Amino acid sequence: MRRFVRFTLPLLLMLGMMFYVSGDWGSTKHTRPALRSILWRVAPALAARLHPEQVNRIDYDIRKTAHVTEYCLLAVLAYRAVRRDSLQFKSRQILFPILLGVGYAAGDEWHQSFVPSRTSSVEDILYDSLGVMIGSVLCQWRSQLQLLKQNRPHPQGVEPVERPEV
């Protein structure tokens, strides 16, 4: 049960949050007013000078950055769920996050095609896939560093300290 809570539950919560945001709540009719409100609170002088098209562009850039970021995090969580504590590399450890991420991105856009306030686009699937690839590469890179660190000889008389399991 502890492994489920530590490795699988965060992935399931992330998928649920992404599904929720995929509905009406994540539409521009909600995000643009929120952005304007934040701008007026944080930088009122800037907000007063911004043309509505500039606000729209900022909103667009934030939304695309969010696509990459959330799918990067999804890939990291999926990788953790498959890998758990293992240091041995298995192809499924990298394939699962990629297949889950790209598949979920396609399903997410399909879901948005049924939400009146949302639009579905292949461009978003590409941004999502970029995030998945970045997350997967980061996980593999970190895994390789851990393996190198583990296989490195220790100075004479110094024993490695093992991390206690949480």
TrEMBL record:
This is VanZ family protein. It comes from Armatimonas rosea. Pfam families: VanZ. It comes from the Bacteria. Residues 8-140 form the VanZ-like domain.
